Amino acid sequence: MSNLRNLRYQVKDLYKRLLFLGREYPLGYSYFYPKLKNAFMKNRNLTNEDEIKKAIDSGEYVIKELEALYYLKKYRAIKRAYYN
Amino acid sequence: MTVLKILVGCKRVIDFAVKIRVNSARTAVETADIKHSLNPFDEIGVQEAINLREVLGKDKVSEIIALTCGPSKSQEQLRTALAMGADRAIHVETSKDQTLEPLNVAKIFKAIIEKENPNLVILGKQAIDDDSNQTGQMLAGLLNWPQATFASKVEIDKDSITVTREVDGGLETIRSKLPAIVTTDLRLNEPKFVTLPNIMKARKKPLTKFSLQDFDIDVTPRLETISVTEPTTRKSGTKVDSVDDLISKLKSAGAL
Protein backbone atom coordinates (compact mmCIF):
# COMPACT_ATOMS: atom_id res chain seq x y z
CA MET A 1 0.00 0.00 0.00
CA SER A 2 2.79 2.41 0.87
CA ASN A 3 4.16 1.97 -2.62
CA LEU A 4 0.87 3.02 -4.12
CA ARG A 5 0.79 6.07 -1.87
CA ASN A 6 4.24 6.93 -3.09
CA LEU A 7 3.07 6.66 -6.67
CA ARG A 8 0.14 8.90 -5.82
CA TYR A 9 2.55 11.69 -4.90
CA GLN A 10 4.50 11.11 -8.08
CA VAL A 11 1.32 11.46 -10.11
CA LYS A 12 0.36 14.66 -8.30
CA ASP A 13 3.83 16.06 -8.84
CA LEU A 14 3.68 15.18 -12.52
CA TYR A 15 0.30 16.87 -12.82
CA LYS A 16 1.58 20.06 -11.19
CA ARG A 17 4.63 20.20 -13.41
CA LEU A 18 2.50 19.74 -16.50
CA LEU A 19 0.09 22.43 -15.35
CA PHE A 20 3.04 24.77 -14.93
CA LEU A 21 4.29 24.01 -18.43
CA GLY A 22 0.78 24.51 -19.78
CA ARG A 23 0.89 28.20 -18.95
CA GLU A 24 3.25 28.69 -21.89
CA TYR A 25 1.33 26.51 -24.33
CA PRO A 26 1.02 28.20 -27.76
CA LEU A 27 -2.72 27.54 -28.01
CA GLY A 28 -3.30 28.87 -24.54
CA TYR A 29 -3.84 27.51 -21.07
CA SER A 30 -7.58 27.20 -21.66
CA TYR A 31 -6.85 24.72 -24.44
CA PHE A 32 -4.20 22.87 -22.52
CA TYR A 33 -5.88 22.49 -19.14
CA PRO A 34 -8.96 20.39 -20.11
CA LYS A 35 -6.80 18.13 -22.27
CA LEU A 36 -4.40 17.56 -19.43
CA LYS A 37 -7.18 16.88 -16.98
CA ASN A 38 -8.82 14.45 -19.39
CA ALA A 39 -5.60 12.57 -19.92
CA PHE A 40 -5.19 12.11 -16.18
CA MET A 41 -8.84 11.26 -15.55
CA LYS A 42 -8.68 8.57 -18.22
CA ASN A 43 -6.18 6.70 -16.06
CA ARG A 44 -7.88 7.34 -12.74
CA ASN A 45 -8.91 3.73 -12.29
CA LEU A 46 -5.46 2.23 -12.68
CA THR A 47 -4.56 0.09 -9.70
CA ASN A 48 -1.74 -2.02 -11.08
CA GLU A 49 1.61 -0.59 -10.02
CA ASP A 50 3.35 -1.28 -13.30
CA GLU A 51 0.57 0.31 -15.29
CA ILE A 52 0.71 3.43 -13.15
CA LYS A 53 4.47 3.60 -13.56
CA LYS A 54 4.04 3.28 -17.31
CA ALA A 55 1.53 6.13 -17.31
CA ILE A 56 3.92 8.29 -15.29
CA ASP A 57 6.68 7.55 -17.76
CA SER A 58 4.54 8.65 -20.66
CA GLY A 59 3.78 11.84 -18.71
CA GLU A 60 7.51 12.47 -18.26
CA TYR A 61 7.90 11.97 -21.99
CA VAL A 62 5.26 14.61 -22.66
CA ILE A 63 7.14 17.04 -20.41
CA LYS A 64 10.29 16.52 -22.45
CA GLU A 65 8.37 17.01 -25.67
CA LEU A 66 6.79 20.22 -24.39
CA GLU A 67 10.14 21.63 -23.32
CA ALA A 68 11.59 20.80 -26.72
CA LEU A 69 8.57 22.40 -28.40
CA TYR A 70 8.97 25.64 -26.43
CA TYR A 71 12.68 25.78 -27.08
CA LEU A 72 12.26 25.23 -30.80
CA LYS A 73 9.46 27.77 -31.01
CA LYS A 74 11.66 30.44 -29.48
CA TYR A 75 14.73 29.43 -31.47
CA ARG A 76 12.82 29.54 -34.75
CA ALA A 77 11.14 32.86 -33.97
CA ILE A 78 14.49 34.49 -33.29
CA LYS A 79 16.13 32.81 -36.25
CA ARG A 80 13.40 34.10 -38.51
CA ALA A 81 13.72 37.59 -37.07
CA TYR A 82 17.48 37.94 -37.21
CA TYR A 83 19.20 35.32 -39.29
CA ASN A 84 17.25 34.80 -42.52
CA MET B 1 43.62 27.82 -13.23
CA THR B 2 41.89 31.06 -12.38
CA VAL B 3 38.67 30.73 -10.49
CA LEU B 4 35.92 32.35 -12.47
CA LYS B 5 33.51 34.88 -11.09
CA ILE B 6 30.92 35.43 -13.75
CA LEU B 7 28.62 38.39 -14.15
CA VAL B 8 25.69 37.96 -16.53
CA GLY B 9 23.44 40.71 -17.83
CA CYS B 10 19.68 40.18 -17.79
CA LYS B 11 17.30 42.50 -19.57
CA ARG B 12 13.54 42.53 -19.25
CA VAL B 13 12.03 42.65 -22.71
CA ILE B 14 8.65 42.10 -24.32
CA ASP B 15 8.20 38.36 -24.87
CA PHE B 16 9.25 37.14 -28.29
CA ALA B 17 5.83 35.64 -28.99
CA VAL B 18 3.89 38.87 -28.37
CA LYS B 19 2.66 40.87 -31.32
CA ILE B 20 4.28 44.29 -30.98
CA ARG B 21 2.05 47.35 -31.22
CA VAL B 22 3.14 50.94 -31.66
CA ASN B 23 1.46 53.40 -29.30
CA SER B 24 -0.91 56.01 -30.66
CA ALA B 25 1.60 58.84 -30.22
CA ARG B 26 4.10 56.87 -32.33
CA THR B 27 6.86 57.44 -29.84
CA ALA B 28 7.35 53.91 -28.56
CA VAL B 29 5.78 50.45 -28.47
CA GLU B 30 3.03 49.52 -26.04
CA THR B 31 4.41 47.86 -22.94
CA ALA B 32 1.54 48.05 -20.46
CA ASP B 33 -0.11 44.71 -19.59
CA ILE B 34 2.05 42.84 -22.04
CA LYS B 35 3.89 39.65 -21.26
CA HIS B 36 7.56 40.27 -20.60
CA SER B 37 10.38 37.78 -20.30
CA LEU B 38 14.11 37.50 -20.04
CA ASN B 39 15.85 38.55 -23.24
CA PRO B 40 16.55 35.26 -25.11
CA PHE B 41 20.18 36.17 -25.75
CA ASP B 42 20.66 36.92 -22.05
CA GLU B 43 19.04 33.59 -21.29
CA ILE B 44 21.72 31.98 -23.43
CA GLY B 45 24.30 33.97 -21.45
CA VAL B 46 22.99 32.70 -18.12
CA GLN B 47 22.93 29.15 -19.46
CA GLU B 48 26.52 29.52 -20.66
CA ALA B 49 27.67 30.54 -17.19
CA ILE B 50 25.94 27.46 -15.78
CA ASN B 51 27.42 25.24 -18.49
CA LEU B 52 30.90 26.58 -17.67
CA ARG B 53 30.36 25.63 -14.05
CA GLU B 54 29.32 22.14 -15.13
CA VAL B 55 32.27 21.70 -17.48
CA LEU B 56 34.98 23.21 -15.26
CA GLY B 57 33.71 21.95 -11.93
CA LYS B 58 31.98 23.69 -9.07
CA ASP B 59 35.15 24.98 -7.43
CA LYS B 60 36.33 26.66 -10.63
CA VAL B 61 33.35 28.95 -10.91
CA SER B 62 33.04 30.68 -7.58
CA GLU B 63 29.99 32.72 -8.29
CA ILE B 64 27.44 33.53 -10.98
CA ILE B 65 25.85 36.93 -10.50
CA ALA B 66 22.88 38.15 -12.50
CA LEU B 67 22.63 41.91 -13.01
CA THR B 68 19.82 44.00 -14.39
CA CYS B 69 19.04 47.70 -14.71
CA GLY B 70 15.37 48.46 -15.00
CA PRO B 71 12.04 49.09 -13.29
CA SER B 72 10.97 47.11 -10.22
CA LYS B 73 9.32 44.45 -12.35
CA SER B 74 12.72 43.50 -13.77
CA GLN B 75 13.04 41.46 -10.60
CA GLU B 76 10.97 38.75 -12.29
CA GLN B 77 13.71 38.31 -14.88
CA LEU B 78 16.37 38.17 -12.18
CA ARG B 79 14.35 35.45 -10.48
CA THR B 80 14.27 33.56 -13.77
CA ALA B 81 18.05 33.80 -13.97
CA LEU B 82 18.32 32.62 -10.36
CA ALA B 83 15.97 29.73 -11.11
CA MET B 84 18.18 28.76 -14.02
CA GLY B 85 21.12 28.50 -11.65
CA ALA B 86 22.68 31.90 -10.93
CA ASP B 87 23.80 32.29 -7.30
CA ARG B 88 22.71 35.81 -6.54
CA ALA B 89 21.32 38.85 -8.25
CA ILE B 90 21.85 42.60 -8.33
CA HIS B 91 19.07 44.93 -9.31
CA VAL B 92 19.75 48.54 -10.20
CA GLU B 93 16.28 49.92 -9.96
CA THR B 94 15.07 52.74 -12.17
CA SER B 95 11.78 54.56 -12.12
CA LYS B 96 9.07 53.23 -14.40
CA ASP B 97 9.44 55.83 -17.14
CA GLN B 98 13.21 56.07 -17.05
CA THR B 99 14.72 54.90 -20.32
CA LEU B 100 18.32 53.79 -20.28
CA GLU B 101 20.48 53.92 -23.35
CA PRO B 102 23.19 51.32 -23.97
CA LEU B 103 25.87 53.77 -22.84
CA ASN B 104 24.05 54.40 -19.54
CA VAL B 105 23.69 50.67 -18.97
CA ALA B 106 27.36 50.10 -19.79
CA LYS B 107 28.33 52.77 -17.25
CA ILE B 108 26.18 51.16 -14.55
CA PHE B 109 27.68 47.76 -15.38
CA LYS B 110 31.13 49.28 -15.10
CA ALA B 111 30.34 50.64 -11.64
CA ILE B 112 29.04 47.24 -10.51
CA ILE B 113 32.01 45.43 -12.02
CA GLU B 114 34.42 47.69 -10.11
CA LYS B 115 32.55 46.76 -6.95
CA GLU B 116 32.25 43.02 -7.56
CA ASN B 117 35.43 42.31 -9.55
CA PRO B 118 34.16 39.51 -11.79
CA ASN B 119 36.67 38.17 -14.31
CA LEU B 120 34.17 37.13 -16.94
CA VAL B 121 31.17 39.15 -18.09
CA ILE B 122 28.61 37.46 -20.32
CA LEU B 123 25.97 39.56 -22.04
CA GLY B 124 23.45 38.87 -24.74
CA LYS B 125 24.68 40.20 -28.08
CA GLN B 126 21.57 42.35 -28.25
CA ALA B 127 18.15 42.67 -26.69
CA ILE B 128 15.17 41.74 -28.79
CA ASP B 129 13.37 44.99 -27.97
CA ASP B 130 15.66 47.75 -29.24
CA ASP B 131 18.23 45.57 -31.06
CA SER B 132 21.00 48.00 -30.23
CA ASN B 133 23.86 45.50 -30.02
CA GLN B 134 26.01 48.07 -28.21
CA THR B 135 26.15 47.46 -24.47
CA GLY B 136 28.81 44.73 -24.54
CA GLN B 137 31.06 46.65 -26.88
CA MET B 138 30.67 49.90 -24.96
CA LEU B 139 31.35 48.16 -21.67
CA ALA B 140 34.53 46.65 -23.10
CA GLY B 141 35.57 50.10 -24.23
CA LEU B 142 34.86 51.71 -20.86
CA LEU B 143 36.73 49.03 -18.93
CA ASN B 144 39.45 48.60 -21.55
CA TRP B 145 38.84 44.83 -21.44
CA PRO B 146 39.07 42.43 -24.38
CA GLN B 147 35.76 41.55 -25.97
CA ALA B 148 34.52 38.50 -27.85
CA THR B 149 31.19 39.29 -29.44
CA PHE B 150 28.70 36.89 -31.10
CA ALA B 151 30.10 33.84 -29.36
CA SER B 152 28.99 30.44 -30.59
CA LYS B 153 31.48 28.50 -28.45
CA VAL B 154 33.33 29.42 -25.26
CA GLU B 155 36.24 27.52 -23.75
CA ILE B 156 38.31 28.40 -20.72
CA ASP B 157 41.82 27.15 -20.21
CA LYS B 158 44.08 28.34 -17.40
CA ASP B 159 43.81 32.10 -17.50
CA SER B 160 42.71 32.55 -21.08
CA ILE B 161 39.42 32.26 -22.90
CA THR B 162 38.93 30.88 -26.40
CA VAL B 163 35.82 32.02 -28.18
CA THR B 164 34.47 30.97 -31.54
CA ARG B 165 32.60 33.90 -33.07
CA GLU B 166 29.96 33.94 -35.73
CA VAL B 167 31.07 36.42 -38.36
CA ASP B 168 29.84 37.05 -41.89
CA GLY B 169 30.57 34.01 -44.00
CA GLY B 170 32.05 31.77 -41.33
CA LEU B 171 33.53 31.36 -37.90
CA GLU B 172 36.39 33.21 -36.28
CA THR B 173 38.25 31.82 -33.26
CA ILE B 174 39.96 34.23 -30.92
CA ARG B 175 41.84 33.78 -27.69
CA SER B 176 42.20 36.39 -25.02
CA LYS B 177 43.35 36.80 -21.45
CA LEU B 178 40.84 37.11 -18.66
CA PRO B 179 39.10 39.28 -17.59
CA ALA B 180 37.04 39.51 -20.73
CA ILE B 181 33.59 40.31 -22.04
CA VAL B 182 31.63 37.80 -24.08
CA THR B 183 28.40 38.49 -25.90
CA THR B 184 26.32 35.50 -26.88
CA ASP B 185 24.95 34.45 -30.22
CA LEU B 186 21.91 32.26 -30.81
CA ARG B 187 23.74 28.98 -31.32
CA LEU B 188 25.94 29.10 -28.22
CA ASN B 189 23.75 26.68 -26.24
CA GLU B 190 20.21 25.56 -25.60
CA PRO B 191 18.81 27.25 -22.48
CA LYS B 192 17.07 24.80 -20.21
CA PHE B 193 13.48 25.35 -19.25
CA VAL B 194 13.06 26.57 -15.67
CA THR B 195 11.21 24.13 -13.47
CA LEU B 196 8.68 24.94 -10.80
CA PRO B 197 10.76 23.73 -7.82
CA ASN B 198 13.73 25.78 -9.05
CA ILE B 199 11.57 28.90 -9.19
CA MET B 200 10.59 28.26 -5.58
CA LYS B 201 14.21 27.82 -4.57
CA ALA B 202 15.18 30.99 -6.44
CA ARG B 203 12.93 33.01 -4.14
CA LYS B 204 15.34 32.37 -1.31
CA LYS B 205 18.47 33.39 -3.20
CA PRO B 206 19.93 36.80 -2.29
CA LEU B 207 19.02 39.84 -4.35
CA THR B 208 20.76 43.17 -3.74
CA LYS B 209 19.05 46.37 -4.74
CA PHE B 210 20.60 49.65 -5.78
CA SER B 211 19.00 52.75 -7.15
CA LEU B 212 20.31 54.94 -9.92
CA GLN B 213 21.18 57.61 -7.36
CA ASP B 214 23.73 55.27 -5.78
CA PHE B 215 25.92 55.81 -8.80
CA ASP B 216 27.34 59.05 -9.99
CA ILE B 217 26.13 58.47 -13.53
CA ASP B 218 24.51 60.95 -15.83
CA VAL B 219 21.54 59.23 -17.46
CA THR B 220 20.13 62.11 -19.45
CA PRO B 221 19.37 60.68 -22.88
CA ARG B 222 21.69 61.52 -25.74
CA LEU B 223 19.42 60.03 -28.34
CA GLU B 224 16.02 61.28 -29.35
CA THR B 225 13.42 58.94 -30.81
CA ILE B 226 11.78 60.81 -33.63
CA SER B 227 9.13 58.27 -34.52
CA VAL B 228 8.30 54.59 -34.26
CA THR B 229 6.34 52.95 -37.05
CA GLU B 230 5.13 49.46 -37.78
CA PRO B 231 6.73 47.62 -40.69
CA THR B 232 4.82 47.82 -43.96
CA THR B 233 2.51 44.86 -44.36
CA ARG B 234 3.13 42.51 -47.25
CA LYS B 235 0.63 42.89 -50.07
CA SER B 236 -1.35 39.78 -50.86
CA GLY B 237 -0.62 38.02 -54.15
CA THR B 238 -3.01 36.94 -56.90
CA LYS B 239 -3.47 33.69 -58.76
CA VAL B 240 -3.06 33.71 -62.52
CA ASP B 241 -4.83 31.41 -64.97
CA SER B 242 -2.32 31.20 -67.77
CA VAL B 243 1.21 32.04 -68.81
CA ASP B 244 -0.01 34.96 -70.92
CA ASP B 245 -1.85 36.29 -67.95
CA LEU B 246 1.29 35.98 -65.81
CA ILE B 247 3.42 37.80 -68.37
CA SER B 248 0.96 40.64 -68.76
CA LYS B 249 0.72 40.99 -64.99
CA LEU B 250 4.50 41.03 -64.65
CA LYS B 251 4.76 43.62 -67.41
CA SER B 252 2.21 45.87 -65.78
CA ALA B 253 4.11 45.54 -62.50
CA GLY B 254 7.28 46.61 -64.29
CA ALA B 255 9.13 43.38 -63.57
CA LEU B 256 9.63 42.51 -67.24
Automatic annotation (TrEMBL), chain A:
Pfam families per record: Complex1_LYR_2
One GO term of the biological process aspect: respiratory electron transport chain
Gene Ontology, cellular component aspect: mitochondrion
Family statement: Belongs to the complex I LYR family.
PANTHER family assigned: ELECTRON TRANSFER FLAVOPROTEIN REGULATORY FACTOR 1 (PTHR21024:SF0), GROWTH HORMONE-INDUCIBLE SOLUBLE PROTEIN-RELATED (PTHR21024)
Protein name, UniProt field: LYR motif-containing protein 5
From TrEMBL, chain B:
Function: The electron transfer flavoprotein serves as a specific electron acceptor for several dehydrogenases, including five acyl-CoA dehydrogenases, glutaryl-CoA and sarcosine dehydrogenase. It transfers the electrons to the main mitochondrial respiratory chain via ETF-ubiquinone oxidoreductase (ETF dehydrogenase).
Main location: mitochondrion
Keyword Transport assigned: yes
Compartments, record wording: Mitochondrion matrix
Organism of origin: Diversispora epigaea
Assigned GO CC terms: mitochondrial matrix
The protein's required cofactors: AMP; FAD
Alphabetical list of InterPro entries matching this protein: ET-Flavoprotein_bsu_CS, ETF_a/b_N, ETF_b, ETF_beta_N, Rossmann-like_a/b/a_fold
Cofactor-binding details, from the entry: Binds 1 AMP per subunit. Binds 1 FAD per dimer.
Electron transfer flavoprotein alpha/beta-subunit N-terminal domain sequence ranges: 26-219
An MF annotation (GO) of this entry: electron transfer activity
Protein name per Swiss-Prot or TrEMBL: Probable electron transfer flavoprotein subunit beta
Family: Belongs to the ETF beta-subunit/FixA family.
Alphabetic keyword roster: Electron transport, Mitochondrion, Transport
Subunit structure: Heterodimer of an alpha and a beta subunit.
Any one biological process term the GO annotation gives: amino acid catabolic process
